[in-house]
Amino acid sequence: MAVRVGFVGAGGMNSAHMKNLDTIAGVKIVAICDLQEERASERSAQYGATPYTSWKKMLKAEPMDAMYVAVPPFAHEGQEQAAAKLGIHLFVEKPVAVDIKTARSVNNAIKKAGVIATAGFQDRYQDIVARAKKLLGKRRPALIMGYWIGGMPGVPWWRVKAESGGQAVEQTIHTFDMARNLFGEVASVGATWSKGLMTDVENYDVEDASCVNLQFESGLCGTIFSGCFTKGYGKVGLDIWCPDMKIEYSGRRSLTVSEVGKEPVTHEVGNNFLLDGDKTFIKAVKKGDQSLVRSSYADACRSLAVPLAANESMTTGEVVKPAKFKD
How far apart are CA 207 and CA 233, in angstroms? Predict the structure, then answer.
């Protein structure tokens, strides 16, 4: 029997997931919900699904095995809890929430229901990330510097911190997550910020830039930078400094390795990591095996807790410990 999949949100990310699932044998897209009726109808016609503008009506009417949720950070309003209660497995795009309370509520519902749940940290499936882990091996890095610096996304909710969480939560969370993926848990966070460049943008209250200092439980230290003020240039990724090696992880493009006495070597991303993430989720659903996915919902909450701690630090000026989540 095919895995029956529904979607809450029919925008860019879920559209990409739909395209991927359409290529995977044993999967049927049965329902698509979006507040924009035209978009829900268009996507549904494309995949032979039923369109909805209410996720509550969709869950009531459509038997589903799995559901993808890709909505703005502020718009998580019970979709995941309701689906989990029905035994529906979940793929939730990042950031999984805009506050700790919502994240805990969903995580508790997932644990209580025992459903498979993962988050959209697709970068974990890149072949160059596996290479980076192998290169690091037993090496102990001394310092990391991370980045998500570029222009401002065009959607109105992004520039309202109460709705997006700010750039650290909505975009740079990919860099925070990769740092956790490679180096383990963050013990404390201290952050600074700047504003005043984006004077021509209406209804804008996020930081133009931020610097988030991280102390990892392992003893490693580092800083992750965010910036949404640039025009036509930027930088995304991690620079990893070891005594005998430097690794430059350039987000979704490449991995450059510099070793003492050797010429730098660059490895390009060689796999369709978004598709691999979708395939892995479907496989986990079919097998009932949560361990197959590379980011559980609880783990995504731990990644969310780091930039949320940074936001608190920006407000208070204090060093903050990220909230804890259990699988």
Answer: 18
